[in-house]
Amino acid sequence: MDLTKTTVPPASATPPDDTYRASDHELERQRFRRSRRRRHTWTASLCTLLGLVALGAAAVSSPGWDRVAELFLDGGEFRAAFPELLRGFWLNIQMFLIAEVLILVLGLLIALVRVTRAPGLQPLRLAATVYVDVFRGVPTLLLVFLVGFGLPALELQGTPSEPWVLGVIALVLSYSAYVGEVFRAGLNSVHPAQRNAAKALGLNERQTLRHVVLPQAVRNVLPPLLNDFIALQKDTALVAVLGPLEALRAAQIKADYDFNYTPYLGAALLFIAVTIPLTRFADRLQRRAAQRTWAETGR
């Protein structure tokens, strides 16, 4: 073969353009999809607006609307009560943050105990199972009563006396049972092949749990965990039955004093201002988890 006769393209020759260009048919399909999305968005917005207008018109035209507006929608009463409600709501936020940390720790410990298969830990597994069964079966409000009034009655040394602390203990006991089951589901969702691969790389059991299993388990159950904490943030209002001056208790005192229920609406708006962003964030995490699952499995 004569290599001297090999044709070499000149240096000035333009390299082939590998940039993807959609065909006219594909561009038309994209325009159609955009047009359909805009049409659906406008239709949904219009239907929502019409529904809200219809509900508002039905409420305003009801026979008892004037009385409801006077008792629940008094602007002056709302402005007078709002500073006290805000101070009380700050206590709700503090209880929520403290309880959340304790619930995460206790719930994870319960889950780890329940998934272990070591024969020597059978008593702990039995205790964790009984704990979950009992505290998931007792209503949270009833548990607040039992802890808030029963624990001080024992007169044990070192027993807290602050009502909000007793309320946090009750919430931790109740929600740790739920969160422990969520963590257990996450731990069981990690495929055994992940553990085998970690062991093949030389990781011991503790390193496998810390670096391989737990990160995947937490990622899998992050949306339901966030939903539990949204419910926890609302249930901090149950501690009002023990007497601490949180948002619901402050609204109750103001409403009883002025014989007007607008402070209850103000307290509800404070809770909504926190729970709605958390709910949207949880929905976003769920969508991302679904997209990740679809990308990994193709279904």
What does this structure look like?
- This protein has 299 residues and is an all-alpha fold.
- It contains 10 helices and no strands.
- Helix 3 (75-115) packs antiparallel against helix 4 (122-137), helix 3 packs parallel to helix 10 (262-297) and helix 7 packs antiparallel against helix 8.
The largest β sheet comes out as: none
Element-by-element helix/strand order: HHHHHHHHHH
Mean pLDDT level: 85
Share of helix, binned: over 70%
Radius of gyration: 29 Å
N-to-C CA distance? 54 Å
Residue runs with pLDDT of under 50 for 5 or more positions = none
Structural class: mainly alpha
How would you summarize what this structure contains?
By secondary structure, the chain is mainly α. It has 10 helices and no strands.
Give the secondary structure arrangement, pairings included.
Elements: H1 24-60, H2 65-72, H3 75-115, H4 122-137, H5 140-153, H6 163-189, H7 192-200, H8 205-235, H9 247-258, H10 262-297
Observed structural traits:
77% helix, 10 helices, 299 residues, mainly alpha
